[in-house]
Amino acid sequence: MTHRDLASGFHVVTGHTREGNQQQDWRQLAKLNGTLVIVMGIANLPFICEELLMGGKSPATPAAIVMSATRDNQRRLTCTLGTLLTKAQEANIVPPALIVVGDVVRLSDRLSFIPEVMERAYSERCS
User: Fold this and answer.
1) Taking every annotated instance into account, which residue ranges of this chain make up the domain Tetrapyrrole methylase (predicted)?
2) Domains of the chain: residue spans and CATH
3) Model's pTM, two decimal places?
């Protein structure tokens, strides 16, 4: 979520509020420095992406979705904010999923330990 060269902080918000409750101000969130982490946001992904872009977040901002994090069926999609919605639809991303928007996403391949951990856990269950 943070890296001293890319983001010194992060913000965690829900992407899905109870009906009747006020939605996040995505345009204001787009202006914040650091990494944006969105939980429960897949159903509202079209609106979230549009509002972040309208709020000034660059379409070239790195973005990722981690579906079923820490489970043996975990999947990760990395792209840009401008292509996130289309790529998520093409990849058939469904909840539960975590959305991450920010420069630290560029490091996800180098810092990902989950596949190794999950592979080891799966191997131990099967032996």
Assistant:
1) 12-84
2) 10-126 (3.30.950.10)
3) 0.80
- The 3-state secondary structure of the chain, one letter per residue: CCECCCECCEEEEECCCCCCCCCCCHHHHCCCCCEEEEECCCCCHHHHHHHHHHCCCCCCCEEEEEECCCCCCCEEEEEEHHHHHHHHHHCCCCCCEEEEECHHHHHHHHHCCHHHHHHHHHHHHHC
Q: Is the peptide bond before 96 cis (omega within 30 degrees of 0)?
A: yes
Place of tokens 């972040």: 52
Written as one letter, the residue type at 1 is: M
60 CB-side CA count, 13 A:
0
Q: CB neighbours (10 Å) of residue 23? A: 13
Q: Considering Cα of 38, then 8, then 113, then 110, what sign does the dihedral take? A: positive
Q: Residue 3 above 90 pLDDT?
A: no
